[in-house]
Design a protein that fits this description.
- By secondary structure, the protein is α/β, with parallel strands linked by helices.
- The protein has a single domain, classed as 3 Solenoid (UDP N-Acetylglucosamine Acyltransferase, domain 1), CATH 2.160.10.
- The protein is built from 1 helix and 19 strands.
- The protein is globular and about 50 Å long.
- This is Carbonate dehydratase.
Length: 186
Amino acid sequence: MLRKNPTGHMPQVSESAFIDPTAIICGKVIIEDNVFIGPYAVIRADEVNEQGQMEAIVIKRDTNIQDGVVIHSKAGASVTIGERTSIAHRSIIHGPCEVKDDVFIGFNSVVFNAVVGEGCVIRHNCVVDGLDLPQSFHVPPMTNVGAGFDLNCISKVPPEYSAFSESVVSANHTLVKGYRRIANSL
């Protein structure tokens, strides 16, 4: 469901994207080409800063936002999700936040007030709060990364996790095509 926010902004969605009918996309949201938005996802750009302004939530091309994901932002801060990125089931991305290209964020993970570098893999049940991750870092399952966390104890992304991330993106491209074909035949 696409809907306006209280300031009158309506989502801008590429014709080549697929948004599940149960998802809610509200306000100043930009969804680019070939994006998959899964069931019960909520992407909501509706809060303003002290000056009454807000930045957009941008979901870049070839990205998938899976079932039950919530993307929101405090006080109108920007959120950008990069190209070919996967946000897995029930994760929360809360702005201000930037997730670069080719990132995988695993099930039930939370990212807040951070920049996640290109090619990072954040596994399931992790929290990244207030600390930027450099390119190609691997956050193991159930790890909390925040102020004072020693990034030197995190390794680079192993090749098998990069391959897994690429396979998830590919699978979701197929879903976009399949669901769009079904929607067009109704």
